[in-house]
Amino acid sequence: MKSIRKYLPNRVTNLGRPPSLATENLESMFKWHYRPDEEVFSKEIKAKLMGMAMECAVIFFFRNFSYTFGGKLFLQDGGGPIGARLTMALARIVMQEWKENYTKILENSDIEEFLSGIYVDDGRSLHKKLRLGERFDIEKKKFSWSKENEEADMKTGISRNELTRKEVQIAMNSVNKDLRFTMELSSDFHDNRLPTLSFSLWEGENSLKHSYFEKGM
After folding, report:
1. Hey, where are the domains in the chain?
2. What is the pLDDT of residues 39-59, one digit of tens each?
3. Verdict on whether the full-model pTM lies above 0.90
C-alpha cells in the first residue's frame, strides 16, 4: 500500500469507530479528504489503484471459496474450484505470463519454436531436440552448449530425447516458482504415441504424424 496510500482519500478525523463492511453509507457517516482529481486519475495511478483493488478481490475470494458435501458446508482449504469463472480467468492469466517469459528463454537461446499453445494448466511446444552438451543456465536464463558437457553426455549415453526432456523441464520450472511441470515423451507409452488432449502424436520420417485420441473410460 505504501506506493499508493498518498493517493487514497483519508478520514478528516480518526475519532470514533473505523469504517467497516457493515457501514451502510461511508459518505454520510464519515468525513473524507480527497486528493485533486488530476492527480488521482492519472493513467499510472489509476492502474495502480485498479491493480490493488483486483488483488484484494482475488485474495478475498481465494480465501473464502466454499462448497457443500453430504449436506454440510465446507471452506476450501486452498486454491480455487475447477470450473469457476474466476479460477479459469486467473489460470489463463498466470499461464499467459509464464508462456511469454518461457518464449523469451527460447529466443535468447536462438531456439526456434515451430508450434506452441497453452490450455488452462497445460502447454504444448514443438522445437528441435537439444544437442548433446546443451544445458539450461538458470542464472543467464538461456540454453548453452559446451564441449565438456557433450563429452559427459556421451559417457552417460543419454539420448537427445531424454536430455531435452530434462533440460527443458528445468527451464520451464524456472519461470514461475508456483508452477511445476511434468513432461511426457512418446517413448513413455507402449505404442510410442504421445496422447495430448483429443489427439496423439508420433514421429514420422522428417515429420510429425497425428491421429484422433480418446482416453479410455
Report:
1. 5-61, 87-182, 184-217
2. 567 788 888 889 989 998 999
3. no
